[in-house]
Amino acid sequence: MDWPIYFKDKLIIGDEKSEIGIVTLWTQVTKIVEPIDKSLFSLAGQLYSKEGINFILRNVLANPNIRYLIVCGEERNGSGQALINFLEKGVDSENNVLETEYAQIHKEIPLEAIEAFRKNVKICNMIGNYNTADVVTALRSYQSSQSGLWGESQVFPEPKIEFDGVMPTDQSIFKVRRKFIGMAWLELLKLIMKFGTVRESFYGNNCRELFNIASVITDEDPDNFMMFPYFQITKEDIIDYLPKFMTGEKGTADYTYGERLWNFPHMGVDGQITNQIDDVIVDYLTRYPTDRAACATIFNITDHKAKTAPCMTFVQATNVDGKLDLTAYFRSHDIFGGWLLNAFGLRTLQKYIAGKLGWQIGNLTILSNCAHIYDNNWKLVQELIEKYGQGLDCASDPRGHVVISTDGEDIVAKHLSPNGKPIQEFRHNGKDEGATMKLYNKMVLAEVVSQVSHGLYVGSELQKAEIAIKEGKGYIQDRYLQ
Predict the structure, then answer these.
(1) Which fold is adopted by the domain 8-141?
(2) Which ranges of 398-471 does DSSP label H, i.e. alpha helix?
(3) What parts of the chain have a pLDDT lower than 70?
(4) How far apart are CA 331 and CA 338, in angstroms?
(5) Is 311 in the active site?
(6) What pTM does this model have?
(7) Which CATH number fits domain 172-388: 1.10.10.10, 3.30.572.10, 3.40.980.10, 1.20.58.100?
(8) Residue 227: CB partners within 8 Å, gap ≥ 6?
(9) Which residue of the set 124, 311, 370, 394 is catalytic?
(10) Is cis: bond before 422, omega within 30 of 0?
(11) Dihedrals phi, psi of 361, to nearest 5 degrees
(12) Dihedral pair phi/psi, residue 28, rounded to 5°
């Protein structure tokens, strides 16, 4: 058997007869282990993730000669402590490492093999120690049993991919920034179907839900709404809906957003109402155009006892560089069934306020606290995503552009504003080991990029520039190496 069977090209191999393995966690294995006599250990490698515990286990079970693991180096995400917990505490009935989040042993590895590993392998906890001399001391202090293999060599099937369709995420604070309402809506559908967790709704059915999504609309023309082929509403539906936002009449409904905005009922005072748009927001910004108190509330304290309560609870108008920005907060938001009409209504309201003030219209921001899609719509939403949602968004990063070049042995990254004005410059010697990562870390600390796609692009170009310098090739951004 060709051993080690996993990540052989990334491990430092010593004496296969040695009973000691070295785990350097996030610290480059060469920095700690390269000066060490290879006869003192069997294998040495890193442990970036808790998932990697499985491959330590698999390699050792394939050659059960290792009885001692020295765990050292930098701990970043709990992988080292997870390994210690695995050896000291074991696993539950689902192979989850006890007292450890997000650490599971492959189900293809039986409990008998797991327990044999835990019984025969001991650990030396040196987490946080980067000193080679200390590791050598630990190596030399180990008392070898010299008793050979502690079990038979075992190789287990590869782990099956088990994915429930929900991508892992922190479940909070998602930002969608698009020119048009329809483009933002499609992105919201994609986010919730990809990251949303299934929960039971107030009505007894299920929904996929994400928390705290911020949708920013920059260019929608309220006089000529952009329609898209994947809409489930027509322009006539929008026209019919707008009076519910733009007038104080509620008809036979318990409430409308328009009624609460234009004729807000005072609690405990029959017949007394306030026009929060003209008499509060417009009036206040006319008198205090740069202040931050031009707000309207939609949710009344008595709504807690009502049969139905407004989902939109708050609206704020703000002067941002002479433009009227509008922000709305929804405590609960049906993204498939309600968000589109809500957004068109808010954009129309924004235009009205801006017109009264004589200002230009700015960004519309919609904050959806509990953003969900009900289960009866999942199939249709998925079909819309598959048909219309596969393209990449090519919008420019609002934080600007990065121009990358080489200057002698230096990689140079110039950060420009969206209008091309130089902001800052980053340099690093391209012949330095890990030059790309060191330069990119500087840029991350400086908050240069805001979009994942932009960050991936910049990273790939920096890496090309480093390769060009190290191999003596010419580098031009966006072109293949010469």
Answers:
(1) Rossmann fold (3.40.50)
(2) 435-445, 452-471
(3) 146, 162-164, 267-270
(4) 13
(5) yes
(6) 0.73
(7) 3.30.572.10
(8) 182, 235
(9) 311
(10) no
(11) -90, 135
(12) -55, 125
